[in-house]
Amino acid sequence: MNNYLRAALPVAALIFIAPAANAWNLVNSINADARQMPGAPATTVVASGSAGAYNDGNSNRYPGSALCSRGTNCRFGPVSYSQLFNGLRTITPMGCTSWNIDCWASVDTNVAINSGTSWEQAITAWQARYGSSTYRYAGYAYSVEPGWTTQICAAWAAYNGTAPGAPTIVPGTDSCATPPIPPNRCDVYGGDVNLDHGVLKLGEITGSRKELTRQVNCSRNASVRYRVSVGNPVDLGNGINSTITVNGVPAGQLITLPGGTSFLRIASTLTDRGARAGVFAKTVVLIQSFM
Q1: Which fold has domain 186-290?
Q2: Signal peptide span per the entry (predicted)?
Q3: Which residues contact 118 (CB under 8 A, 6 or more apart)?
Q4: For the whole model, what pTM was predicted?
Q5: How far apart are CA 198 and CA 152, in angstroms?
Q6: pLDDT tens track for 23-55
């Protein structure tokens, strides 16, 4: 009878599971640094943004295919859109600062795909061109129309570059938040305003009027008050008052300025309050405030 010695020999094994070749996770974010773009409509602002496609091992995260509306081919890449109160969307590809369709085809944040291309294939093509992520300083444009825009969203989509058509958003890539709306501002150009009434005769003071114009640029439509630092009318001394007006109304009253470039008409109209011979002058500051 043979006797056998049986021994349990430990066996160590290193098991490595490689991520699936096309296990993409799409991310897209709009940064809270919205600002007005020169030449853009007053109700449009832009913000920087970043987008990336990362391989995280979770394959088939985005089942389905791209459908190119009104054509057999289209573009694929990160987009933003304003979610409007009526359910409509104003979509712009990453890197476009307007809704001009020419930008949709020429912007360098997308790749060309065919209708019916799977989302996984589209993402693979995008990643092959741009790598894991990309960033744009002027990444996204969106509307800040009062009463219209409720949210700003980042997403990925297939969209036409040559003709209008509804973009197809990749399911599960939407990320929405309240839009970062920059504060309005109106910059006045042209330096100090010197309203010189010159030499006046006693008895001919009341009604004397001088006006100068200054250019003003507002981020968007604005309701503004320009108040006089010492009150209005202004006591100029020697028994003379001046009423300061801006765009035809007394300073301190509300005026409306359009977005973009317009003009301020700043005027002084004198009133004789018992004028005496001599020099009269006053330095005042106009204080700008928004309603």
Answers
A1: Immunoglobulin-like (2.60.40)
A2: 1-23
A3: 64, 65, 66
A4: 0.61
A5: 56
A6: 788 999 888 888 776 666 667 788 889 999 988
